[in-house]
Design goal:
The complex is a heterotrimer of chains A (361), B (495) and C (325). Chain A is mainly α and 361 residues long. Chain A contains 15 helices and no strands. Chain B has 495 residues and is α/β, with parallel strands linked by helices. Chain B folds into three domains: 7-237, P-loop containing nucleotide triphosphate hydrolases (Rossmann fold, 3-Layer(aba) Sandwich); 243-332 and 408-495, 3-Layer(aba) Sandwich (Rossmann fold); 346-407, no CATH class. Chain B is built from 16 helices and 20 strands. In chain B, the strands form four sheets. Chain B has a six-stranded mixed beta sheet with strand order 6-7-8-3-9-10, with helices on both faces. In chain B, strands 16-17-18-13-19-20 form a six-stranded mixed beta sheet, with helices on both faces. In chain B, strand 7, helix 6 (173-189) and strand 8 (193-198) form a beta-alpha-beta unit. The chains are: A mainly alpha (361), B alpha/beta (495), C mainly alpha (325). Chains in contact: A-B, A-C, B-C. The interface between A and C is large, with 48 and 45 residues.
């Protein structure tokens, strides 16, 4: 059937196109695309260790993406998610470096602190947006930079390692403060996996089945109408920011409490921005998030070895992911246009009154 | 020859989906005549005029000018052929000044001669008695002034045929007189053709030499004026309409549902002082005035969407001054805005989701019962749509029905901005039946409308807004449309 | 005037120039009703390409041309996605922000920290001798002079020419522009690409003049966002936009001066936060309506002249799509 092959083509095409463009670019810097793709694959799936690295990207990426599903549903561009991860990491670091508690209490406290940090930083964006009418993109960008500056300040000042001192990282956290791995071979935190599962399920349930979720959706689609229908839109937007910030905070906390074991500058590693790409790619459909984040995490994990193996910069991962999302957005546009010119495939609910007719009535 | 212009429309067809908006239209317009294009909302008259002026393409048919077939691909090309149209909402740029708007679209070299253009603008304005300040931003003009600007602009471009789409909606009687005088002069002295699209009989009777009547996309008749109202109505609707009986005041107690005490309202453009008003249960209050004279501000102040800078607002005896919209909602007020899809309904949500949004009070939504409830409401309000239909796929009339369904069952007070805006006659009448039902239950209604007929027909009392003043109509019994029009235009204001 | 002070002002003007050019470019794009959010990445990629092209060819001019082509191409992608394919301009712009920055890092990895051609100062003979203003404004590079021309040129175009009326109209009310004979979407393409090319030029101004060379992480990262904020602060008016850019560069110079002053005890790291705090403050200034209120207290005759300069509303059709019949 023509329709089905068309739809199939428009799904496969962006993937092929982005791979092709990336291959051309690799050749441009004088490398062999096949070797590169092989290395990336190996880097992700060669053995349990490389696979666990993929999972360690997947966990925070999935967390922020699910958080961003919430803000996007409310129609908000939470670019500040990077800073919210960063602040989550800073708050968790404070707990890890200063609190003397048994691990059974310390770890939950650290995670709560991470949520607090991310939530607070998101609340700032929210206040700027809802009270002071500063667009969340600008508020977010500024607060991202400020969060990073704050962590650099802490690393180079108050939390400087005792001996010598460096601007690269805080002293390593005590072992009790770290999340335990599942096994020495498979370095993944079980607790984090459980948290990810809980977050995925709760976000989906909250958006589909609760009044809060419906109010977010209405706010996102038309805040003015939602307000007139009695939705507390300001509070809706604020709560979306805070929920996303808290989830992003956990993701940031995970980076310091498991991945690094210390706080370093730019601790989020671009994962927050990547989450935004993921949510754009899936057009805010929550169910697709875990799969797409897995693919992105595999590309990310696989490309960490490029520098050593082929002297190529790891930013290649970002290039491939960026082209993929761009190609998907473009193919979405093509699909919409194609549907419009082939009205036979319109479902009844898609038909809109022509503008001119509306004006006449 | 530029001076004479005969227009012939031959076999014009235009469809929008299933609607045959223009069905085999044949018409001839002679130079120097003022022709009324009459028909109720949705009859296809605007579509036809948009085709003639290049704003819309036709499916088939021909346009002949002075014995030659022409075709053009846009309004600019139509103007080059001498045909210009004044839209109901004049197509200008709010951020431009009057002069910039006048210049924009005129042919010429890179840098326009502002002095020359200004002289031309002033000369044309003077001829018709229009007062247009060249440096004023268009966003600060009234609809009437924007029409005047558009007319002089089209004249400066050498238009020989002027089409006006419902030009008397939202303008004062004074501006209307000015406009009609100008049109008469253009037809008589400049032998221009003037086509007046309207559904208002009084306008057509006052101005036109002849009329063509459309019904459901077809020409159902044309006649030379003068003709009687009855003749025209019979043509328009295919039957005579019985006049709507005036509803008697139904207020059954003296307690004020809504009370304003010396309220002051202000925004960037105006300030209205000292509004005092008591509305009893079951009363219908109409707010009359030109577009943007403050009626909307008052309506919004009554539901907490606009803050009063001074004074006090009571709802059902409770002081609500400075309270938020949500707090007003809890006292049992309901608000309906003029732009339904902008303010009221959420495009992208289904009917069920709308219903669930206003009815569910638990944290978790019971979608089955929400759907059931939606089906009941669809039946009750006679909505053409399904629970899972997205709201934007419904027609304007059905959207308005859904809005009614979303309002609380027995509100203390309903504040409605232009409740029948853009609706066909049937839907409008249905909406008013519903509203009158609710007033019987004790609901007070306060509404605004640009339609004087609607105001006079349904209001128990009318408040007139004009130039920063409000005034209540004293003698409702003997109020005529003309009188109300004069008051809106600023005559008879007591200062 | 103190020669040291003149030097400071001279360098403020020089350092502000890429910001000026980029925000003028974005002003053009947004006036046409299109948002090019990709500035932060566009600047980085065009800076890299500009530097590499100049390095390889040995000619700064070729570097500039290459950078402008890159900026224009990025804008073209936004125009196709936003106008032709009716996707969210903000979404495409954001994806491109990340993508172009990564592309710059990846493609420029073999060209980091090497010396290359630079655009040198060329004082304008007579003008440079004017006291105070001469050495500040006319002892600069050709790019700076070009930025002056852009500022006045855009003002003239917007407010004194017929095509300028069309440019403003397609961003304010495209239906009107269409009715008056403008090909709305074609014009939007044109101005989006022109605006993008100027952003590319701004990128080259970094890598060939203000912050010569190429490095990772790129030294101009973040300035694209600042430029976007300046456009809002500038109320889409070329003169106010420029004022904003100079203000920013001036306050940056001030914070560098503070860092160099040993008497003031403040962490160097924290001073880096100043531009961002400043960005929020300037946006607050606009969103609070403070600037517009200024308009209402001015006497009427003055209002006429300042209305365009003081307005704070974005072009009414910014970021929307127009369907031509």
């Amino acid at each position: 059937m023509r329709t089905r092959s068309m739809v199939f083509g428009l799904t496969i095409l962006p993937i092929l196109a982005s791979l092709l463009i990336t291959a051309v670019l690799i050749m441009l810097v004088g490398a062999d695309p096949r070797a590169v793709f092989e290395k990336v694959w190996e880097g992700a799936f060669r053995d349990l260790r490389s696979f666990s690295q993929v999972i360690n990207f997947w966990i925070p990426l999935t967390l922020v993406s699910m958080g961003l599903i919430v803000t996007f549903t409310a129609g908000l561009w939470n670019i500040g998610v990077e800073g919210q991860m960063g602040m989550g990491a800073v708050f968790a670091t404070w707990g890890a470096l200063t609190l003397q508690l048994p691990p059974l209490i310390l770890i939950p406290v650290e995670i709560l602190l991470a949520m607090l940090g991310g939530g607070l930083w998101a609340a700032l964006v929210g206040i700027l947006k809802t009270r002071l009418k500063v667009h969340e993109i600008f508020g977010g960008v500024a607060l991202n930079a400020l969060a990073n500056i704050a962590s650099i300040y802490l690393i180079s000042g108050p939390w400087q390692p005792a001996e010598g001192g460096s601007v690269r990282a805080t002293p390593p956290f005590p072992a009790d403060a770290l999340l335990p791995p599942m096994s020495p071979d498979f370095g993944v935190s079980l607790l984090a996996l459980v948290i990810v599962g809980v977050v995925i399920v709760s976000v989906i349930v909250a958006l589909r089945g609760t009044r809060w979720g419906l109010q977010l959706k209405a706010t996102g689609k038309n805040a003015r109408s939602a307000l007139l229908l009695g939705v507390p839109t300001g509070r809706s937007a604020m709560s979306a920011f805070i929920v996303c910030g808290m989830v992003a905070g956990i993701a940031g906390g995970y980076r310091v409490l498991f991945t690094y074991g210390s706080l370093r500058p730019l601790v989020s590693g671009g994962i927050g921005f990547l989450g935004l790409l993921v949510v754009l790619l899936v057009s805010i459909r929550a169910l697709w998030v875990p799969l797409v984040t897995f693919i992105f995490a595999a590309i990310l994990g696989g490309s960490t070895r490029l520098k050593v193996a082929l002297q190529l910069d790891a930013s290649l991962a970002g290039v491939l992911q960026g082209f993929l999302v761009l190609a998907v957005l473009f193919s979405n546009g093509l699909r919409e246009r194609w549907r419009e010119t082939n009205p036979a495939h319109l479902s009844e609910t898609d038909i809109k009154t022509p503008e001119s007719l509306k004006a006449d009535r | 020859m530029g001076l004479v212009m005969n227009i012939e429309l031959k076999h014009i067809h235009k469809r929008f989906g299933a609607v045959h908006a223009n069905n085999d239209i044949n018409l001839t317009f002679a130079t120097g005549r003022i022709v009324g294009i009459l028909g109720e909302n949705g009859a296809g008259k605007s579509t036809l005029m948009k085709i003639l002026s290049g704003f819309q393409s036709m499916d088939s048919g021909e346009i002949w000018l002075d014995g030659k077939p022409v075709s053009y691909n846009g309004p600019q090309a139509a103007i080059a052929h001498g045909i210009g149209m004044l839209q109901q909402d004049p197509l200008d740029v709010g951020a431009f000044t009057v002069l910039e708007n006048f210049i924009y679209g005129q042919p010429g070299n890179l840098s326009p001669k502002r002095k020359v253009a200004q002289q031309q603008l002033e000369k044309l304005s003077q001829r018709f008695g229009f007062e247009l300040d060249p440096d004023m931003p268009v966003s600060q003009l009234s609809i009437g002034q924007r029409q005047q600007l558009e007319i002089v602009r089209l004249l400066a471009l050498g238009v020989r045929t002027l089409i006006l789409d419902e030009p008397t909606t939202g303008i004062s009687t004074e501006q209307k007189t000015l406009l009609f005088d100008a049109l008469r002069e253009l037809a008589a002295k400049d032998s221009m053709t003037v086509l007046l699209v309207s559904h208002k009989l009084e306008d057509v009777i006052a101005l036109c030499h002849e009329v063509a009547v459309l019904r459901a996309g077809r020409i159902v008749g044309s006649m030379d004026m003068p003709a009687t109202t009855t003749e025209l109505v019979t043509l328009m609707f295919g039957q005579e309409l019985a006049a709507q009986p005036r509803q008697p005041i139904n207020a059954n107690s003296d307690d004020a549902v809504l009370a304003l005490h010396k309220v002051q309202l202000r925004n960037k453009r105006m300030k209205i002082d000292n509004i005092s008003l008591r509305v009893r249960a079951g009363e219908i209050i109409g707010l009359a005035g030109l577009d943007g004279s403050g009626q909307e501000m008052l309506l919004r102040a009554c539901v907490g969407l606009e803050k009063c800078s001074r004074g006090q607002i009571d709802i059902a005896g409770r002081d609500m001054t400075g309270k938020s919209y949500r707090e007003f909602l809890q006292t049992g007020v309901a608000f309906g805005a003029a732009g339904r899809l902008e303010e009221g309904l959420v495009a992208g949500l289904t009917l069920t989701e709308h219903i669930a949004l206003v009815t569910s009070h638990q944290s978790f939504i019971d979608w089955n019962s929400a759907r059931q409830h939606t089906e009941d409401q669809i039946k009750h309000y006679n909505v053409r749509g399904r629970p899972e239909s997205r709201i934007e796929t419904l027609s304007g009339g059905n959207q308005q029905r859904v809005l009614m369904a979303l309002m609380p069952q027995e509100p203390v007070l309903m504040a409605l901005e232009q409740p029948t805006r853009g609706l066909d006659v049937d839907s409008a009448r249905w909406i008013w039946q519903q509203l009158i039902e609710r007033r019987k239950g004790g609901t007070a209604i306060i509404f605004s409308s640009p339609d004087l007929d609607e105001l006079v027909t349904y209001s128990d009392r009318i408040i007139v807004f004009c130039g920063g003043w409000v005034q209540e109509v004293a003698d409702m019994e003997n109020l005529t449309l003309d009188e109300l029009g004069r008051m809106i235009g600023g005559e008879g204001v007591i200062q | 005037m103190n020669p040291e002070l003149i030097n400071i002002f001279n360098s403020i003007v020089a350092n502000a120039t890429p910001l000026v050019i980029a925000s003028i470019g974005e002003t053009i794009t947004e006036r046409a009703g299109v948002v090019n959010l990709s500035l932060d990445g566009s600047l980085i990629l065009s800076a890299m390409v500009g530097f590499v092209a100049a390095f390889v060819s040995g000619s700064a001019i070729i570097g500039i041309i290459a950078a402008m082509i890159v900026g224009g191409l990025i804008a073209l992608i936004i125009a196709i996605g936003g106008i032709e394919l009716r996707q969210d301009q903000v979404a495409i712009g954001f994806v491109l922000t990340l993508l172009t920055a990564d592309l710059a890092t990846f493609l420029g990895q073999n060209y980091t920290r090497i010396p290359g051609p630079q655009i040198l100062r060329s004082p304008i003979p007579i003008l440079a001798d004017i006291p105070v203003a001469g050495p500040i404004f006319f002892n600069q590079t050709a790019l700076v002079y070009l930025s002056y021309a852009l500022i006045f040129g855009l003002w003239y175009w917007l407010f004194r020419t017929r095509p300028g009326l069309a440019l403003r109209a397609i961003g304010e009310r495209p239906e009107t522009a269409f009715a008056r004979g403008a090909n709305v979407n074609r014009l939007r393409y044109l101005y989006t690409i022109i605006g993008g090319a100027l952003v590319g030029l701004a990128g080259a101004a970094y890598s060939l003049s203000v912050k010569p060379g190429w490095a990772t992480p790129p030294s101009m990262a973040g300035d694209g966002w600042i430029a976007l904020a300046i456009v809002i602060f500038g109320g889409w008016h070329p003169f106010r936009v420029v004022l904003g850019a100079y203000l920013f560069a001036g306050l940056r110079a001030l914070s560098t001066a503070i860092q160099r002053t040993p008497e003031i005890e403040i962490s160097v790291v924290l001073l880096n936060g100043i531009p961002w705090v400043l960005m929020i403050i300037t946006l607050l200034l606009v969103s609070s309506g403070a600037i517009e209120r200024l308009l209402t207290v001015l006497p009427r005759p003055l209002q006429k002249w300042t209305r365009n300069f003081l307005r704070s509303d974005p072009p009414a059709a910014l970021g929307t799509r127009f369907k031509q019949k």
